[in-house]
Amino acid sequence: MNDVTHLTGHCLCGAVEITVSGGHDPRPGICHCRMCQRWSGGVFMCFEAPADAVSVNGDVTRYASSDLAERAFCPVCGSNLWMRNTDDADASFELMPGLFDAALDWPLRSEIYTDNAMAAAQIGGSHPKATRAEYEAKNNYVKGDAG
Amino acid sequence: MTEGRLLQGRCLCGAVTVSVRSEDPRLRACHCDMCRRHTSSMFMSVDTDASTLTVEGPAQSYVSSEWAERGFCGTCGSTLWYGTKHDGTRHLAAGLFDNAAGGPLTLEFFSDRCPSGYELAGDHRRLSTKETIEMFTDADATDE
Ligand SMILES: [Zn+2]
Questions:
Q1: CATH code for the domain of A80
Q2: How many Å lie between the centroid of ligand 1 and the Cα of residue B79?
Q3: Please, what is the average pLDDT of chain A?
Q4: Would you say the pTM of this structure is higher than 0.90?
Q5: Which of A73, A111, A127, A129 is best to mutate for the B interface (most B CBs within 10 A)?
Q6: Cross-strand partners of A112
Q7: What residues 83-142 of chain A have any CB closer than 8 A to a CB of chain B?
Q8: What is the dihedral of CA A96, A102, A105, A108, to 10 degrees?
Q9: What is the DSSP secondary structure assignment for residue A66, as one 8-state letter?
Q10: What's the domain range around B56?
Q11: Which label site among A25, B104, B115, B116 has the fewest CB atoms less than 10 Å from its CB?
């Protein structure tokens, strides 16, 4: 699914502005792996936008959360901004939907690591779901700290 | 007095560690625009005894309004807390603790501001924007 709508979003303090011009997938996915829980504080969500569609204004801090990926945040307010693979210069951005008002009415794409979800964070709905084992059978993942 | 269970948590990179006691680690979720922007989805906190809290490491605070500040790890950006300035209370992020310290979800704030694509399942209490604002106005932000 692709949507070519022009999107503008910003972090809580406004120091970082992100524009998406071009195709993106207007459906957030949820990840309940332990790393994503620790980072977001609760329920991690992201949506995919190709690198050439994304422009970022403002200072950003990048944290290499594994050999595979970085997680970016605003150094002023701490807002989570994106997660992105670092093994490919053209890797898509997995942007945080909370930055964009347009995402308020987007449907969910999927939910992964469902068997690691907090008891208090059970998500209702009929979107596609995968347990840790189901997800890791088909995808690259960080060994050790996911569960 | 130190009562309740000792909870120990940490951010994603491990640079920030927290230690706190809780007699009833129930959870609350907030869908206000500010919490959503900060966390990517919603802010979830664990109820703890704030007077027993110790925080170590490169925690940073951003003053997000006249009444509140938000903590995050300066190294990895993990969400750490929502703090109220008038009493210095820090409501710790659920993600710091394994399975959110095992607590149940008891309350959602600004439930009508939850994006339409998802919802938190369960029969916990849900407060609309109007009800949330009334609660904090009436109780002088004592949060109960
Ligand atoms: Zn950290």
A1: 2.170.150.70
A2: 9
A3: 92
A4: yes
A5: A73
A6: A31, A130
A7: 96-99, 103-108, 118-125
A8: -30
A9: S
A10: 5-104
A11: B116
Are B95 and A27 in contact (CB < 8 Å)? no
- Within a domain: residue A18? yes
pLDDT tens string for chain B (144 positions)? 557 899 999 999 999 999 999 999 999 999 999 999 999 999 999 999 999 999 999 999 999 999 999 999 999 999 999 999 999 999 999 999 999 999 999 999 999 999 999 999 999 999 999 999 998 886 554 444
Does A146 map to a domain?
no
Q: Which domain holds residue A26?
A: 7-136
What's the B76 CA to ligand 1 centre distance in angstroms? Answer: 4
Q: Please indicate whether, in this complex, the C-beta atoms of A12 and B43 are within 8 angstroms of each other.
A: no
d(CA B24, CA B59): 25
Q: Is A33 on the interface with B (CB under 8 A)?
A: no
Close Cβ partners of A131 (under 8 Å, ≥ 6 residues apart) = A113, A114, A115
- Return the CATH number at B11: 2.170.150.70
ipTM over 0.85 threshold: yes
Asked if A78 lies within 8 A of B117 by C-beta distance, the reply is: no
The alpha-carbon gap from B134 to the nearest alpha carbon of chain A, in Å, equals: 24
Q: pLDDT value at position A141?
A: 82
Residue B25, in any domain of the structure? yes
Q: Name chain B contacts of A117, Cβ cutoff 8 Å.
A: none
Tokens of A140: 């690259």
